[in-house]
Amino acid sequence: MANWHRLTEARIRKAEAEGTLSGLAGEGRLLPERPGDALIDPSDAVGYRIMAEAGALPEEITLKARLDAARADWQAATIEADKRRHMARIADLQMRYEIARDARRKFLRQAPAPAALRLDPGPSEAVLAPAMTGPRYPDLIARLPATVPFTGPEEIERVQGHPFRARLGANENVYGPSPKALTAMQAADAEIWKYADPSHLDLKTEISTRMGCRPANIVFGEGIDGCLGNLVRLLVAPGDPVVTSEGAYPTFAYHVNGYGGTLHKVPYRDDHEDIAALFAKAAEVDAKIVYLSNPDNPMGTWHDGATIEAALEDLPDGTVLALDEAYIEFAPEGTAPRIDPEDPRVIRFRTFSKAYGMAGARVGYAVAAAPLISAFDKVRNHFSMNRSAQHGALAALQDEVWLGELREKITVANERIATIAAANGLATVPTSTNFVAVDCGHDGAFAKRVLEGLARRGVFVRMPGVAPLDRCIRVSAGTGPDLDILAEELPKALAEASAPVA
Amino acid sequence: MANWHRLTEARIRKAEAEGTLSGLAGEGRLLPERPGDALIDPSDAVGYRIMAEAGALPEEITLKARLDAARADWQAATIEADKRRHMARIADLQMRYEIARDARRKFLRQAPAPAALRLDPGPSEAVLAPAMTGPRYPDLIARLPATVPFTGPEEIERVQGHPFRARLGANENVYGPSPKALTAMQAADAEIWKYADPSHLDLKTEISTRMGCRPANIVFGEGIDGCLGNLVRLLVAPGDPVVTSEGAYPTFAYHVNGYGGTLHKVPYRDDHEDIAALFAKAAEVDAKIVYLSNPDNPMGTWHDGATIEAALEDLPDGTVLALDEAYIEFAPEGTAPRIDPEDPRVIRFRTFSKAYGMAGARVGYAVAAAPLISAFDKVRNHFSMNRSAQHGALAALQDEVWLGELREKITVANERIATIAAANGLATVPTSTNFVAVDCGHDGAFAKRVLEGLARRGVFVRMPGVAPLDRCIRVSAGTGPDLDILAEELPKALAEASAPVA
């Protein structure tokens, strides 16, 4: 019976993984009890109902056909080893067939099959083959939803059948990296046969002089996403409380869910993350981590550094502040708080994906007290960084002239987005990032229609996931031609959203 | 008192993270009981002993100086906000100082401090500041050693003060990637501002046609290391049994330890991984995963595919075979077993780091039944792959002429290594990889001296970690000039190893 349960579970997981299980009427509930159902183990009953509703029941007919073919092979085989091999297959197919049939019967309230797992009719010497149950997932993993934090624009392009004309949804830096970074990457490509230095010392040294810390205060990862995942893994055991804002970075929430942490969310306040409320919630639930992005994504708002410095006094004992500064290079002087790198309460995250224009390179890093940084070495994938990216990032850091010019271009682009919005009667949220939240003036459903209309017209944008933030669409600071397309298509998308086709 | 315990623990973890805690005489044991020790909580006693022996006790003198300075700042401050800020700092320093002093006293069997956590002498209005305890690690993480699977050659170069002349230690492909792959990467660098397609569909489609599977059977990661880490995360809960070979790939063991799995190891047999013993051990311990590399690393030996196919019948119910085929492209036809991609019992791993010469690009992938592959989407870092690497890998796959030529070069290089070894009276282990295990003819200590002698002479090689494999050094298939250097330096390293300097 153990194999049975495993197979049942495996099938459910398969259906779950294939996304056919969500929103089922019977999901998670027992079948109602009826006379004659006594033989059904409650956990089985749930499983059978979910399977049947999801259409995940193995197809008895297919299995029967495969079983018949296997029996014919067995009959035809002359060598003993071949016969044994076919027999193992038969036993396996037979068992799967029995389970399928039994599951259907149970679901349909028919009497259970009288004698499962016995081969009949068929070769009498058959013994039960290895059950091929495959992976056994721990509960934490089995319960995780098969959701992905963000669908890539390429996937959307494939679904809608045409490429985007303006890629303004992922806050990528359309102006690309410093030419020096590009040259450095292309040169390094010639030595791509070498693993990158897993200690990233050259890059750490360069950054440490800029941040006023030691190399031992820095750890790299595959973007901030990679660093956030490792931080959560280091601190969050199943059930541990973690605090974030309602509508903040979904990938952080994804990692917390992935390690079984319990998320507690506080609302934004006037389109800003509410630091006092975040820290108060952290104290209330005794959070392991509180997440704050400054400047904020998805709204683009920011707090000045002094505000965060002062608030740190209210950070509860034992809570680590994960300060995501992905967009800090776009923000006004003084937005980054001054924090002693050895302060054990804070870990800050930076990236080459935004201002440095290297999103595709996957270079992010964390800065914190040396003991926490060194703990990352316990779990990280040491050889995970691309070697050319490492060289490109080093060159990018050193080109400050380029960074200054970029900031000006972004400011111009953001102003253009605000102008386009205003021309359509829409307000924008003040930003210190390379994107603008455009307030579509109605609810989330309306903004979603605008977003979909733009997508149909070749403009890729994204939007916040929850109210009231989801009244906005989020538009990245594009090139002139990108924003020409936006200016052209936004009125049409708005008109269509106001009078949607059923 | 809660803060106290946390701080004590935090300090111990810090010492642990800094590697000063291993092999201490008192580690994990209680202090012996003595009259007057009744006030010491046993858990504290262990902590204090470990801290003191590790030299991890906070320096009272430094803390006292910082405290005095903070008090002076407080005295000098005129603005109320500044005074409050200094006071918070004073309270924190004072507490740390008290704890340091108390820990020393307890360790030295002195009487505990009479009244801890009270400010004396000092500003009377002080209240206890946030305790700045910082991160609280779950037990699993706290217990993890701060060891790294492999030190990079760059780190060794820094320590020894000179660069390597021949880089033959990491089984990198010194011949580099196909020129077409290089061109593709350099072209893609110009669009590095875009995130890579997180579904990797182009690459999956290309691979699926070659492997006879669907794109849904493939998942990418940052090298095989990244994929292995995610597999372990998906299947191994703390305490779950996992089977590998004694001396096999350390990074796999690192991931299993990292997720709290229990490793069971079986010895190699005649320098081959012992499939029957591995699977028997898996059955014995009810393993979640059994790891097998074919061809094997670090020995270079291999089993033919048919052997693995036949052995699968003995793979126990519920155990997943993690088949690491990093070196498969170098191996003879028939080395890869034919396995139905939907077989739930097996997941195989391949990479662009070895034959394709793109170790620095970080592109590895796993092939398995669609439900297991789709489970990776629950936990993986979706946007972790470098965009140029993705384009390079696609071009590399399509250049089969180049791959054929490479195989010939590797064969020549491996033969040259065997010839060099023979010229020094050393045997080599037959290989189907791009490296050769050279049997140094004595024990692990001797081989280690040879390895160190080679390193001093600018030749980077590695060696297996356990007996009897560690009689060998592992030499990657270098270029002609690389192996000229090996030929020149190996006799000297051997001579030196035979008559080591004390």
UniProtKB/TrEMBL annotation, chains A, B:
Residues 8-72 form the DnaJ homologue subfamily C member 28 conserved domain. It catalyses: L-histidinol phosphate + 2-oxoglutarate = 3-(imidazol-4-yl)-2-oxopropyl phosphate + L-glutamate. Keywords: Amino-acid biosynthesis, Aminotransferase, Histidine biosynthesis, Pyridoxal phosphate, Transferase. Its cofactor is pyridoxal 5'-phosphate. Its EC number is 2.6.1.9. GO terms for biological process: L-histidine biosynthetic process. GO terms for molecular function: histidinol-phosphate transaminase activity; pyridoxal phosphate binding. The keyword rRNA-binding does not apply. The keyword Amino-acid biosynthesis applies. InterPro entries: Aminotrans_II_pyridoxalP_BS, Aminotransferase_I/II_large, DnaJ_homolog_subfam-C_membr-28, HistidinolP_aminotransfase, PyrdxlP-dep_Trfase, PyrdxlP-dep_Trfase_major, PyrdxlP-dep_Trfase_small. Pathway: Amino-acid biosynthesis; L-histidine biosynthesis; L-histidine from 5-phospho-alpha-D-ribose 1-diphosphate: step 7/9. PROSITE patterns: AA_TRANSFER_CLASS_2. Pfam families: Aminotran_1_2 (PF00155), DJC28_CD (PF09350). It comes from the Bacteria. Residues 168-489 form the Aminotransferase class I/classII large domain. PANTHER family: HISTIDINOL-PHOSPHATE AMINOTRANSFERASE, HISTIDINOL-PHOSPHATE AMINOTRANSFERASE 2. Belongs to the class-II pyridoxal-phosphate-dependent aminotransferase family. Histidinol-phosphate aminotransferase subfamily. This is histidinol-phosphate transaminase. It comes from Salipiger profundus. The lineage of its organism: Bacteria, Pseudomonadati, Pseudomonadota, Alphaproteobacteria, Rhodobacterales.
